[in-house]
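Example 3.
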Amino acid sequence: MRVYLDNGTTTQVAQEVLDEMLPYFIEKFGHPIFVYSLGREAADAVERAQEVIAKSINAEREEIIFTSGATEANDLAIRGIAYANRKRGSHIITTKIENPSVLRVCEKLEGEGFKVDYLDVDSQGFVNLDQLEDAIDEKTILVSVMHVNDEIGTIEPIEEIGKILREQKHKVYFHVNAAASYARVPIDVERMNIDALSISAHKIHGPKGVGALYLREGTPVEPISHGYISLFPLRPGTENVPAIVGFAKAAELAFDAFERHVEHMRKLRDKLMEGIEKIPHVVLHGPRGEKRSPANVNYSFKYVEGESVLLHLDLNGISVATGSACSTRKLEPSHVLTAIGVRPEVAHGAIRFTLSRYNTSEEIDYVLGVLPRVIENLRKISPIKPGQF
Amino acid sequence: MPTEYTERSLLRYSQRIMELFRNPKNVGEMENPTVTAIEGDPTCGDMMQMSLKIEGDRIVDAKFLSFGCAANIATGSAVTEMVKGKTLDEAEKLSIKEISESLGGLPMLKMHCAVLAYKTLKKAIGEYRQRAGGYE
């Protein structure tokens, strides 16, 4: 049996999405900027896509900009807002557990003279709100916090942060990286007081190479890439119309039965967690229950190394992700696990399982039939005896 | 997680490495080893224990235990297999290049696994020699 449990990294494109995209390659291939009917068709498709996405987060159509993905959306939001508001202040606040696409951008800004504070998180990954309040000063122009942490599934208190920022005497823009939360946890940019939001198509069974940035009307932003302006002044270049159409279709499929999909994933998540906890010497990363993404499971299996677990699962047809150092280019354990206080020797045994609405109960049964054996066999050949850490 | 997790896509293992990962050679505890050495550290995610049975000046058996990735398990298998039957002098001459070549090449990022196996072997032989009262 092939079981794909790495939906946090990327997802399979839904057939309906592919079907929706195809006409835009050969029949309706026009450039959306042109007034003749072929162009109008493409432009209408992009507008419809904006509508669908905007509605899913309680935003206005014109506030949706399509990008090449969440990475670009994060870069545009953070650097764009930073540069545009630089005269007012140059202090930015984010967290230690953001994705590289936020962290590397903040580091670049630090190199350009901006001051960046990286908030601590507790052992379950929740951002320290007191630290946030203390950190905000009159020079703070931007706060960027991810909605759901894609490694350990923590759902951050976005509404509370929005409230804190609303209460400030001066405007502090609020950017949220929602790549891991979109279509899994409800988002309302009004209720949450969000000014900028990044989302990604290939996380929700849409194609790779497309994402979106929601940008609240009136938010001062400078473009970070330059050139030929098509439909979006802030984001030059010819739009990837088929991919945008696919993104909107993927969103439609997800939001048409949002509660049902989420409930389905949550049941499988809980079943998987219950089964894993029957294995001795496991450590859960991230919170339980309501404050955890319905799609995320992450445990360390002590005394064995993550890449070995991952490859044995792969040999059994199961795809997962690991936070072990040996599986990365930098040979360091996951920065998220480090930030929540997990010791390196434990972090090396971390495996992340991320669900989609397409996973089934039978698949979870299969995984729970394979996993304990894999762990036991690796522990048998390990020089580390249980209890050593 | 397009965090460090996806960077593993750059690591490609040879068929030989995957074979040895699936069916490691010489893995397990040895009964009455002549010498046992450990190298590496669980905090690094890379650790190996090697046991040798030595008769006269010859290694007659070698076994290893592993806490590490596929390359770790594969190099442990390769090294123990390569030293069985060799004299201590011959075994000491085993190079990292030879270890890597016997595996069909190791990805650059995994060379440290070959180094670990090499160091563990050297440590085991060194400890035996020290115990046995110096070099012959």
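The longest helix of chain A spans residues 37-57. Chain A has 13 helices and 13 strands.
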